[in-house]
Backbone:
């Protein structure tokens, strides 16, 4: 299995770590000997891994060599709205966009992907995605494998529907495209050489619609150590890790010398979805095979306590908002670029009550923050959902109370997005815009709205 290269960076005189990414056209062979037109960053498919440490000022020179506008969103990153790479920051063909921000959040497996309004599904499906790993030099060593590409391996899992002539087909179920060509880091039938007793996989669901339930063919127990926004408080022994589109999990797998075991996606538990909706609930796939060497280097034991999450409690919230999700609408409205749906005061802790009214899958991704799931239909979340999250699966007809705090950045002119990360749903309108403003301030006019007023 190819491991994405670490992106080179240069440190500017002011100390900023500067990366470059170029979105470009290419070709990939998903089927033996057959070229499929794909898009990638700095290559034919996917992109290099960006890596930075907490406290660093980073910048990315994003160049668009595609024949149409795109954008690059830093999924899971806490940063100013104007740097977020959403639909208000599209990059024209031939142009370069240079967002810059200070990394200030716990170590985590984040990722980047396009977010142009109405075309996100197509751009991700064609291959534009990459990892953005954050490190925290001040965090204690908790015994996790950490040699990139050796015992600490990023794996983006995606599915595509590839015709015999190589073209990417776009036949859609209600949830979007459910393809049968499942890849790990862009290849089918991937195998990963293992040279250590423990291997850490950073799993990313980079699919546009499909939810995976990862486990091993022999049903062995492994350990989930992190969710979207970083480490869980304690390791969670499990046999399955379920990820909806956009979600991540870090897992540690113990291997015996010489053994081989396949990572599979088993039938996901999507909740009470209606019969007759194709949602991938019955699909199973092999994803990759771990192949251990005859002798393995020793690995440290994973600590019993991984981190102390900062308190983020529903009872500390000063604002509660309701987001009902149905069809392609949030609270009865489709996304409009010129309408601000919520105005949040900087520093506020809020509860967002999110309910999927439908009998089909949705999920919810909130930009700028890492939230906490306070409860699901009043019950405490299961341990894998108790950590820092930026994307959560929404089972049909259940209510998720999410707690989040909007620190640091206020900008009345530029909205963040909240949306379903089933990308067809997002493109068709299941998205809303919120701005974070200074306390007492109001949202400014956004481009084309013809309404609202500017703050003083
Ligand atoms: Cu949806």
Residues:
């Amino acid at each position: 299995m190819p491991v994405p290269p670490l992106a080179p960076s240069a440190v500017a005189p002011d100390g900023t770590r500067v990366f470059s990414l170029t979105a470009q056209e290419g070709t990939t062979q998903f089927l033996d000997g057959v070229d499929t037109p794909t898009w990638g960053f700095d290559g034919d498919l996917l992109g290099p891994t960006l890596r930075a440490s907490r406290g660093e000022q980073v910048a990315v020179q994003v160049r668009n060599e595609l024949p149409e506008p795109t954008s690059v969103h830093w999924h899971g990153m806490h940063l100013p709205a104007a740097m977020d790479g959403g639909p208000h920051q599209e990059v024209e063909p031939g142009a370069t966009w240079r967002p810059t921000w200070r990394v200030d959040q716990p170590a985590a497996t984040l990722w980047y992907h396009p977010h142009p309004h109405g075309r996100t599904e197509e751009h991700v499906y064609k291959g534009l995605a990459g990892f953005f790993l954050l490190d925290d030099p001040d965090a204690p060593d908790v015994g996790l494998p950490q040699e990139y590409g050796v015992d600490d391996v990023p794996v983006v899992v995606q599915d595509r529907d590839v015709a015999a002539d190589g073209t990417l087909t776009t036949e859609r179920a209600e949830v979007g495209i459910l393809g049968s060509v499942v890849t790990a880091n862009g290849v089918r039938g991937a195998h990963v050489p293992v040279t250590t007793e423990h291997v850490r996989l950073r799993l990313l669901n980079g699919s546009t619609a499909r939810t995976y339930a990862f486990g091993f063919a022999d049903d062995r127990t492994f350990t989930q150590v992190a969710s979207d926004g970083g480490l869980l408080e304690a390791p969670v022994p499990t046999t399955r890790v379920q990820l909806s589109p956009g979600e991540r999990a870090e897992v540690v797998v113990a291997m015996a010398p010489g053994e081989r075991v396949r990572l599979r996606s088993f039938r996901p538990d999507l909740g009470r979805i209606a019969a007759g909706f194709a949602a991938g609930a019955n699909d199973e796939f092999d994803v990759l095979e771990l192949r251990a060497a005859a002798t393995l280097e020793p690995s440290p034991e994973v600590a019993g306590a991984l981190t102390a999450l900062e308190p983020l409690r529903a009872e500390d919230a000063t604002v509660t908002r309701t987001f009902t999700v149905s069809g392609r609408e949030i609270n009865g409205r489709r996304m409009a670029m010129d309408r601000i749906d919520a105005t949040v005061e900087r520093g506020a802790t809020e509860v967002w009550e999110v309910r999927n009214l439908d009998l089909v899958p949705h999920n919810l991704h909130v930009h700028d923050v890492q939230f906490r799931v306070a409860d699901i239909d009043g019950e405490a979340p299961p341990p894998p959902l108790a950590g820092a999250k930026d994307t959560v699966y929404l089972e049909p007809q259940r209510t998720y109370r999410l707690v989040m705090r909007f620190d640091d950045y206020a900008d009345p002119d530029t909205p963040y997005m909240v949306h379903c990360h089933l990308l067809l749903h997002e493109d068709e309108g299941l998205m809303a815009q919120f701005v974070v403003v200074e306390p007492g301030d109001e949202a400014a006019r956004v481009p084309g709205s013809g309404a609202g007023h500017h703050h003083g």
Q: What stands out?
A: Residues 448-456 have pLDDT under 50 and may be disordered.
